[in-house]
Amino acid sequence: MVASVTLNVQPDSHSLARAAADFICAQVVARPDLSILVATGNTPMPTYSELARRAQAGEADFSRVTAVQLDEYLGVPEDDPRSLWAWMKRSFVEPLGTGRTVRLDDPAQFESEISELGGIDLAILGLGPNGHLGFNEPPSPPDAPTRRLALMPASLESNRAYWGDLPVPTQAVTAGMNVILAARQTLLLVSGAHKRTVLRAALEEPETPDLPASLLRRTAPTVIADAAAWT
Ligand code: GLP
After folding, report:
1. How far apart are the CA of 129 and the centre of ligand 1, in A?
2. Which of 107, 106, 68 minimizes the C-alpha distance to 88?
3. Number of the ligand 1 atom closest to the C-alpha atom of 189
4. Residue nearest atom 5 in ligand 1 by C-alpha distance
5. In the 8-state DSSP scheme, what is residue 168?
6. Burial degree of 134 (CB within 10 A; 0-12, 13-18, 19+)
7. CATH no., domain 6-230
8. First to last CA, the chain
9. CA–CA separation, 58 vs 38, rounded Å?
10. Residue 120: pLDDT over 80
11. CA-CA distances (angstroms) from residue 224 to 11, 30, 44, 125, 166?
């Protein structure tokens, strides 16, 4: 493994959530006006619930944080239950009370809004089953920009779990690898035995655009995994 990765293995998804919340809260205390790139997906949901609990208990203050959308489906209106914007709002923005948001719609406008913010301070990321970050499908080189793209079969399959009987959108827009890798801090959350093989490869195999998550190692990431994902 590359020395610069900080790997924190927790016994289960509950302790993962507490450890991740501790990490995020420490960043917000150090810099209350943090800009955070916010993953949706199942993995970070217990972490966001823990952050919301702390916010509601007055233990943490996210009112000056800017929440930046990581990825989105194309052709899905804002009020569609599958909208990742709506998912980010109900799981993160509203319960934490973040002050500002940046929506991902037009790639060029998104990148210029991030420049105006002064870049991303903290990227909270999940790990796709094929090693994608956001929707940066393999192969995604380090300079892959924010862009629209077609989802690969593995992503369609994993995303099916979110939407029950509704069809999974096949096109998406993602914050580019350029945006993710330029974040001042990166936090990768990984939970479950089904992520074990791809996590090992991301941390231990040679860096390659064919496994976009492996490129994260150049950011000195913090990786918090549960024991099922790292044994
Ligand atoms: C999805 C999303 C990612 C997410 C990842 C892992 O397809 N595009 O943003 O982080 O795959 O999802 P999960 O946490 O549900 O395993």
Report:
1. 8
2. 68
3. 14
4. 128
5. P
6. buried
7. 3.40.50.1360
8. 15
9. 22
10. yes
11. 11, 20, 11, 11, 31
Question: If you count them, how many residues does the chain have?
Answer: 231
| Element of type H or E holding 53 | helix 45-56
Sign of CA dihedral 211, 217, 223, 228: positive
**What are the structure tokens assigned to 136, written together?**
């940066």
Which element (helix H / strand E) includes 173?
strand 171-174
Cis peptide before 11 (omega within 30 of 0): no
Report the amino acid identity of residue 98. T
pLDDT in tens, 150-204: 999 999 999 999 999 999 999 999 999 999 999 999 999 999 999 999 999 999 9
Give the position, in ligand 1's atom list, of the atom nearest the Cα of 195.
16
The string of DSSP codes covering 104-157 is: -SSHHHHHHHHHHHTS-SEEEEE--TTS-BTTBPSS--TTPPSEEEEPPHHHHH
> Of the residues 127, 133, 156, which should be mutated to test ligand 1's pocket, given the most ligand atoms within 8 Å of the CB?
127
pTM of the model: 0.97
HSE, side-chain direction, 13 A CA sphere, residue 19: 21
| Token code pair at residue 37 | 């790139």
